[in-house]
Amino acid sequence: MVRRSGRRPGNQDTRQDILAAAREVFAEKGFDKASIRAIATAAEVDPALVHHYFGTKEKLFLESMEVPVNPAELVPKALAGPREEAGERLTRLVLSVWDSPAGAAAVAMLRSAMSNDWTARLLREFIVTQVLRRAITELDMPRDEAPMRASLLATQIGGLAVVRYVLKVEPVASADPEILVRAIAPTVQRYLTGEIT
Amino acid sequence: MVRRSGRRPGNQDTRQDILAAAREVFAEKGFDKASIRAIATAAEVDPALVHHYFGTKEKLFLESMEVPVNPAELVPKALAGPREEAGERLTRLVLSVWDSPAGAAAVAMLRSAMSNDWTARLLREFIVTQVLRRAITELDMPRDEAPMRASLLATQIGGLAVVRYVLKVEPVASADPEILVRAIAPTVQRYLTGEIT
Question: Would you say residue A185 has pLDDT above 70?
Answer without folding.
Answer: yes
